[in-house]
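Colleagues,

For the teaching module next term, I've prepared a clean inverse folding example: a structure given as tokens, and then the sequence designed for it. I'd like students to try predicting residues themselves before seeing the answer, so please don't circulate the second half yet.
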């Protein structure tokens, strides 16, 4: 089992920045990749960043150039740096981890971007 706990959400004005953190614990050795997802009210959950165990990253066009995912393996942490935030980035952001057999999710942290 893997446990994920997010932190760092909050209220920010458009154009501002936030850094989300995700602390992983448990069977860390089983994790192949980690990522950040978000879900806005009335919308489907979407992936906004992913990072493999080798450090390769991937972003959708909607956040490319504004969001950066990184991981600190020594501290079992994953981060999402979000710059140039827009009101449409408002959502609950979830940290996720994938092993060969399971997907794990954190409880989510709210990000609200005011115009």
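(Answer key — instructors only)
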């Amino acid at each position: 089992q893997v446990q994920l706990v997010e932190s760092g959400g909050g209220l920010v004005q458009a154009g501002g920045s936030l850094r989300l953190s995700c602390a992983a614990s448990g069977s860390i050795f089983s994790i192949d990749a980690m990522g950040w997802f978000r879900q806005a009210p009335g919308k489907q959950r979407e992936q906004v960043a992913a990072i493999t165990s080798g450090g390769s990253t991937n972003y959708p066009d909607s956040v490319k150039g504004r969001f950066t995912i990184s991981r600190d393996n020594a501290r079992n942490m994953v981060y999402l740096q979000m710059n140039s935030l827009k009101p449409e980035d408002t959502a609950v952001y979830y940290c996720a981890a994938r092993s060969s057999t399971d997907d794990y999710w954190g409880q989510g942290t709210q990000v609200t971007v005011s115009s």
